[in-house]
Amino acid sequence: MSARRFSFGTVALLGAAASSARAQDRLVGLRAFGAGVTAEAMTFGGGGLFQGAFGGEDSLRVRRAYQLTVPVTLAVPLGSAWTVDVTSVYAYGTVTFDPADPRKPGSRTATLAGTSDVRLRATGRVAGDALIVTLGANAPTGRAKLDAEQLTAVRVLAAPALGLSAPPVGAGASGTVGVLSARRAGRWAIAGGLSYELHDSYQPIRSLAVGAEGADFRPGGVTRVSIGADGLVGRERLSLSVAGDFFGSDRLRAGVVAPTSGQPVPTTPSAARVRLGPVISADAQLHLAAPRVREAVLWVSSRWRSSFARDGVSVSGSSGEYLDGGVRTSIPVTARTDVLLAVDGRYQSGLGFDDALLTASTTGAGLTAGVARRIGGVTVQPFARVQTGHVRSAAADRPGGSATVAGGSLGLTILSRF
């Protein structure tokens, strides 16, 4: 599940607190345990979506994708000024596809399973309440070495066009340090933040985003600058945030992909330096003062990715816009039970430099319904989601280059504050 649509995921429940200045204090002193399970399935219409040859595998048509995800997170106070949280996810995903050449044998399945990296974070106050500091580390427990079958699976499961939960692929060792300062300005709370993330290891998904087929990819650091505001506009509360991610140079060296059978397949022919362009994100939430509801929120989220450069030359078709929006509401039916409803839509321009689903454009909409039941200090949330849309790859001018897609998910999350 994406935290930008109406997500009931445990990780999103804890991580969403960082999205506004008003919520920062809730990160300090938090004591909670969360776990969940989500089953997601997506089906492509017609003969499936065409995908070009990749990593020694022939071109194919993607027919179906399925993923089961189990996130677990724990947050505990460390003294009076700090909180430490740890998060990990187990996932099992499969992709069913047919060869693009009808003369070849029928359907095949690519599978990817395992645990993600373990993410550690410490958040605390320093200099009184003037600053909130975050220290993070990513322990590289997730899968980093992928063969051709697993790369085929991750190119589908990680596609933004499908909006599935993150697949069980490691991001390598990394460390993060960040600071945030918040101030009152009349009826508004204003916050500004700065963070830096240093990477030390290969990142499969980030390398695929620049067209690297499993090569030796060493990512550079990432600097994030953000500003947010939260305040009243009449009877409604408005939350706004803008952030920019600025990337260092990545090193891309010649590498190979291990096929499911046969000899390793060479990929990148020579060493190269890749630099991702800035990514600018903007989010807005309007909390409506609606009667007879516990929460009613209109939200919109925009993410613009600028072109990346390879050896100093900008890559054509590598910039894109990702736009999501919707409304979510929580309606109390008893003192301990709420009905949760959400409608959302999305538009993604896609990236034209590659014909993979990972860079495809899409339009779509979804409907989510759930129940939140509070039992003592535990909140239990079962939910269901349906979605539909249209996906168009850079190979849309050939048969199977675009397709309808439909699917849904069922899940349950449990959050305990103690």
Strand-residue proportion: over 45%
Quantity of strands, as a count: 25
Question: Main β-sheet, in a few words?
Answer: 16 strands, antiparallel, barrel
Mean pLDDT: 85
Domain module count: 1
CATH level-two architecture: Beta Barrel
Low-pLDDT parts are: 1-25, 256-269
CATH class: Mainly Beta
Helix content: under 10%
> Strand arrangement, largest sheet?
1-3-4-6-7-8-9-11-12-17-18-21-22-23-24-25
Number of helices: 3
What is the element string, with H for helices and E for strands?
HEEEEEEEHEEHEEEEEEEEEEEEEEEE
Keywords: Plasmid, Signal
Signal peptide: 1-23
Short recap of the structure:
The chain is mostly beta strands and 418 residues long. It is 5% helix and 57% strand.
Structural description of this entry:
The chain has three helices and 25 strands. The protein has a single domain, classed as Beta Barrel (Porin). The strands form three sheets. A 16-stranded antiparallel barrel has the order 1-3-4-6-7-8-9-11-12-17-18-21-22-23-24-25. A five-stranded antiparallel sheet has the order 10-13-16-19-20, with no helix packed on it. A two-stranded antiparallel sheet has the order 14-15. By secondary structure, it is mainly β. The two termini are 26 Å apart. The radius of gyration is 22 Å and the shape is globular.
